[in-house]
TrEMBL record:
It comes from Vagococcus elongatus. The keyword Nucleotidyltransferase does not apply. SUPFAM superfamilies: ITPase-like. Keywords: Cytoplasm, Hydrolase, Nucleotide metabolism. Nucleoside triphosphate pyrophosphatase that hydrolyzes dTTP and UTP. May have a dual role in cell division arrest and in preventing the incorporation of modified nucleotides into cellular nucleic acids. InterPro entries: ITPase-like_fam, Maf-like. This is dTTP/UTP pyrophosphatase. It catalyses: dTTP + H2O = dTMP + diphosphate + H(+); UTP + H2O = UMP + diphosphate + H(+). It comes from the Bacteria.
Length: 183
């Protein structure tokens, strides 16, 4: 089975390599604008599906994996920060709070479609503004949903995690492994 990952995320590639040593990377280019009234859980699953479907169109013999991750704080969806100031604001909003990370997963082939949701709740310690500024200056948060990578420099901010840790990383590897068995 030829597998294509519809993402250029190095974290997703590294994790997929643990279960599928040989795969292609073809990033999907889709409109990720959030539709009004769409629940965050529906949004990430729709985006994951659209990413995989856009690649499957031109590679119909492959099995395509699409993912999308967002952070939800209250009723607000937080994607990738636009600039350093927004990254800092996002991070400071998590201070001494619990937020939810949602990853939508879609695995598509010409014969089968599976779409799932993986999630985790993350609680941050009270944050020190200078540490947050230093983290933002490192550039690490700039390409990440919610402006942080739990496996990187932001690990010092995390007090507690409940749920699928790999949903936070953006690739629920256990779920992917289980679902790929049926393809």
């Amino acid at each position: 089975m030829a597998v294509i990952l519809a993402s250029q995320s190095p974290r997703r590639q590294e994790l997929l390599r643990k279960i599928v040593p040989d795969f292609q990377v073809i990033p999907a280019d889709i409109d990720e604008t959030v539709s009004e009234g769409l629940k965050p859980s529906d949004y990430v699953q729709q985006m994951a599906y659209e990413k995989a479907a856009s690649i499957l169109e031109s590679h119909p013999e492959a099995t395509v994996i699409g993912c999308d991750t967002v952070v939800v704080l209250g009723d607000k969806i937080l994607g990738k920060p636009k600039d350093h100031e927004e990254a800092k604001q996002m991070l400071m909003s998590y201070s001494n709070q619990t937020h939810r990370v949602l990853t939508g997963l879609a695995i598509l082939s010409k014969d089968k479609e599976v779409v799932r949701l993986s999630s985790a709740d993350v609680t941050f310690y009270p944050l020190d503004e200078k540490q947050v500024e230093a983290y933002v200056a490192s550039e690490e948060p700039m390409d990440k949903s919610g402006a942080y990578g739990i496996q990187g420099g932001a690990s010092i901010f995390v007090r507690e995690v409940s749920g699928d840790f790999y949903a936070i990383v953006g690739f629920p590897i256990g779920l992917v492994n289980q679902l790929l068995r049926d393809f």
